[in-house]
Amino acid sequence: MKRVDLIKEIAAEFELIANRLSETEVATVASVVELEPQHLAEIAKRTQKLTGLKNVKLKTVIDKSLLAGIIIRIIEEFGALFIKARICPSKGGDRFQL
Questions:
Q1: Pairing between β-strand 55-62 and β-strand 93-97 as defined by DSSP bridges
Q2: pTM to 2 decimals?
Q3: From which domain of life does this come (predicted)?
């Protein structure tokens, strides 16, 4: 069992190094329901635009304590950034408003 834990730690460290080399920041997106791929792509695009980050990789978390919308959490070297967003109905389907 200790080997499995060790492999998990090695994989996590590898991911951190790979993200640093590719200038990728990991953002956690919390929502009350699972998000569709097109919504995740829109969230990544808007997060990059708002923060000026070169690359953003999203990790999703289901948070049943939320009533609606999403919370995006980005931890950088010097602090944390939280972005709250809501889904706005539109003619072309649901859109995120950040």
A1: unpaired
A2: 0.67
A3: Eukaryota
CA angle at 13 for the pair 47 and 9, rounded to the nearest 5°: 120
d(CA 10, CA 30) in angstroms, rounded, equals 26
3-state secondary structure of 34: coil
Distance separating alpha carbons of residues 67 and 39, to the nearest angstrom = 18
What does the alpha-carbon distance between residue 38 and residue 4 come to, in Å, rounded to a whole number? 34
Confidence class of residue 62 from pLDDT cuts 50, 70 and 90? very high
How far is Cα 50 from Cα 67, in angstroms, rounded to an integer?
24
The most confident of 51-55, 85-89, 91-95, by mean pLDDT:
51-55
